Amino acid sequence: MSIKRFYPISRLLLGMVLAISLFSCVKDQNFHSNEEVEMYKLSDLDLVQPVAMDAIETAAAEMSYALSSTIDKAGVKEAIEYCNLSANDLIKTIAEDYGVEIKRTSLKLRNHSNKPSKDEKLILDFYAKQESLGKACKGEMSKVDGIYKYYHPIYVSENCTQCHGIAGESLHKKAAKKLAELYLNDHAQDYHTGDLRGMWVVTFTK
Ligand code: HEC
């Protein structure tokens, strides 16, 4: 999955410190147009987005590594079992490192415990509308009961179709059988490369 990288938080914080010190030095001289001084007025989105994106990139990279190495070593069926048992635990461990909550959700679920909350459903519907209009979805942010939430779309890449594609085609019969054993009500099939699969949600609980 390709995720756009934003500037790292360390650079952002350094920029803010510079901005604040620069701002206090120069404000008497009526100094307005300076890049660093602009950063003094960071919006909430500017603060939340880099942390959320860093956490999402880490989670996506670790998931991708865990799945592809299990597929290479043991096969797709075993990787499905791994995903069934460990995907949400792996995501939880990474979230704890960042001091946030992370989840993946979708309008077409495989594991129904990943179901969207009310605000998440609104964003998923919005993303689905964008997709139907042929528009690319972007990161979105909301504040729910005083808590920031950041949403980021997840698109299907070719390797995802081994487990989310069309049964008998990209999704091999053995893998489809394993999925049917583990998930009674699996709606997360029939995807093509490039389709919108769902989204990441990062909740800033602290
Ligand atoms: C080895 C098989 C496998 C591969 C490859 C795979 N997935 Fe999944 N995916 C699963 C399984 C199994 C689940 C259900 C996990 C669970 O029980 O929590 C799942 C769940 C999800 C979910 C959570 C929502 C839901 O439906 O429960 C998303 C989003 C998702 N996958 C996206 C992707 C994307 C994007 C890719 C490619 C980058 C991908 N998956 C690759 C097997 C796979």
- Helices and strands, in order, run as HHHHEHEEHHE
**Number of folding domains?**
2
Most strands sheet: 4 strands, antiparallel
User: Ligands bound here?
Assistant: heme C
Walkthrough of the structure:
- The chain has 206 residues and is an alpha+beta fold.
- The protein folds into two domains: 1-42, no CATH class; 47-203, no CATH class.
- The chain contains seven helices and four strands; from the N terminus they run H-H-H-H-E-H-E-E-H-H-E.
- The chain has helices at 9-26, 35-39, 44-73, 76-98, 118-132, 161-164, 173-182, and strands spanning 101-105, 140-144, 147-155, 196-203.
- It has a four-stranded antiparallel β-sheet with strand order 1-4-3-2, sandwiched between helices.
- Strand 2 (140-144) and strand 3 (147-155) form a beta hairpin.
- Helix 3 (44-73) runs antiparallel to helix 4 and helix 4 crosses helix 7.
- The radius of gyration is 20 Å and the shape is globular.
- Heme C binds at residues 1, 67, 76, 79-80, 83-84, 87-88, 104-106, 109-111, 114, 154, 156-157, 159-160, 162-164, 188, 197-198.
